[in-house]
Write a structure and sequence with these properties.
The complex is a heterodimer of chains A (74) and B (575). With 74 residues, chain A is mainly β. Helices cover 9% and strands 34% of the residues of chain A. Chain A contains 1 helix and 5 strands. Chain A is globular and about 35 Å long. The radius of gyration of chain B is 22 Å and the shape is globular. The longest helix of chain B is centred in the last third of the chain and has 21 residues. With 575 residues, chain B is an alpha+beta fold. Chain B has a 6-stranded mixed sheet with strand order 2-1-6-3-4-5. Chain B has a 6-stranded mixed sheet with strand order 8-7-12-9-10-11. A 3-stranded antiparallel sheet of chain B has the order 13-14-15. In chain B, helix 11 packs parallel to helix 13. At the A-B interface, strand 3, strand 4 and strand 5 of A face helix 7 and helix 8 of B. Chain B: Belongs to the AOR/FOR family. Chain B: It holds the Pfam family AFOR_C. Chain B: Keywords: 4Fe-4S, Iron, Iron-sulfur, Metal-binding, Oxidoreductase. Chain B: It comes from Desulfocapsa sulfexigens (strain DSM 10523 / SB164P1).
Amino acid sequence: MRVQVKLFAFFREGRFIKEDKELPEGTTAGKIVDDLSIDREEVGVLMVNSRHCTFETVLHEGDIYAIFPVIGGG
Amino acid sequence: MADKIFRVNMTDLSTSIEDVPAEWAGHGGRGLTSTIVAAEVPPTCHPLGPNNKLVFAPGLLSGTTASNSGRISAGAKSPLTGTIKEANAGGTSAQKLARIGCKALIIEGQPQDDSWYSISLKPGEITISKEEKLVGKGNFAVVEDVEKRFSDKIGVISIGQGGEMQMAAANISIKDPDSHIRSLGRGGLGAVMGSKKIKFIALDSGDAKVEIADPEAFKAANKTFTKALVDHPVSQALGTYGTNVLVNIINEAGGLPTKNFSQGQFEGHEQISGETMHDLIVERGGKPKHGCHAGCVIQCSQIYNDIKGNYKTSGIEYESIWAMGADCTIDNLDQIAEMDHILDDIGLDTIETAVAFGVAMEAGVLAFGDSNEMIRIMTEEIAKGSPLGRVIGNGAGNVGRTYGITRVPVVKNQAIPAYDPRAIKGIGVTYATSTQGADHTMGYTIATEILGVGGKADPLSKEGQVELSRNLQIATAAIDSTGMCLFIAFAALDDSTCLPSLIDMINARFGINLTANDVTNLGMTILKTEHAFNTAAGFTNLDDRLPEFFEIEPVTPHNAVWDFTGEEIDTFWNF
């Protein structure tokens, strides 16, 4: 299945901003984080299709998946 | 030397330095400005008339070495909302006022003629002077000239042309450590200062220092407090990307109000994002990390240079970038920085003014995305007080009424900031119930709904949102009284050492024994004091509502509408 993965803030350093990835069915949000060598402790927010999700969330064909470090502002 | 109340009467140009009444002694910052306004300003007065008062107060810890304690509060009845108002900013003035020994500066009355004045404060001394030279000038010229007259160490509080013309979007500018500008942004307090014919206030604290009752305990508490701030990952991201790190995440969540609140995502988000801004700043030799006041350890401000590497603006915030960017569909950071600089100089709130432009674009006054025309209107119309300039400079609600527009994002006539309440519902509760009109900083539910700080809440669900907003509004009212930057809240929500060490510092400063419960009670008392003022000014629960279009126009991508009932919102005040 194809999933678009988007990275933000310093997660982009040495990686990418946006990439379409071919992934096996049943891939979880957490597995993608691990495969990108991102420390789960550093993850602040995960979203699939503009909704918050968890490391356990299973992705599907055509999903847009966004990974953010712990950030804030306001 | 005990702190005093400095009072200036602009009707007869008299001054006095008074002992602090016992009932004001435990207050600082917002708690004190709201307490004084509630005690001394008739709620039904005209905000620009002689009976309104403009109050400045440093926070309880301002002027000390406490990290991030440099916020100054200003309060009055707001000409924009008609409610009580407090706005706070960084810069150097909070520290100067505190070291002068000024617990609050109260400006009352109004000159009977057309003369303009300045005020200068020193320890134990208030001087009122006539001012001619700087009338009609922008804030940058004022700061430059006042520094030449006094010294570059002087604190400066000033208004630009917007405040002079008493526009409801006018802010009050506070000089920062680099002689640039921070803003007491919201609610038109610059118009109140203009109505009292005060162009600037100069603050000279000399070598004076704030007394600490227990210096050793203070130092120890500050060390713990500072560590909590520095160690929190949000602080670290703020120092790198500024508050503008939010553009991409709020866009991703579908809550970035775009094209005058007609969409929840902006195609040009990446071009105006914190990530892009960081790279541009570094490329042009600016500073991505910069403090708006001495002692800030978070440093979310920045120095933004233009394409030639020359200084353009400082402390360009997410809300400003969103308002001039996504809300007006402008995807060019250089144009946004230019407008930020112009609005700082004229002295207008970037949120109110840019949202007013968004409504004007909806009305066809100018095209969406036309930043050149925005810049022309700012410099040729608003700064010069033309009829169109005054229509826009009096805020988003005014533009909507003038042109017959129904999609006007305001609560109590104050422009809604950078988070769509249909897609992020908790912040809608804050907009609706805030004592001061729509204002995200009053109860920043975004931390929990979007950023996962201080727990989690589903932004598209109503569940728990009233309680979340209530708890945050109570905590915020207390934090706004300490002189602390609100960004200590991220650490305070997650790190159990942060708030106790803050309370320890207040106790060590004054030699008192506040507990966490006392601080919560302080927050509740402030909210109730502000709410009672508004009630006496004629506001009811029916004013605690969002504009109708949020209920009937679904916003993409979630096709969400605002679905709180009035009864649900009204439970906010059950405490």
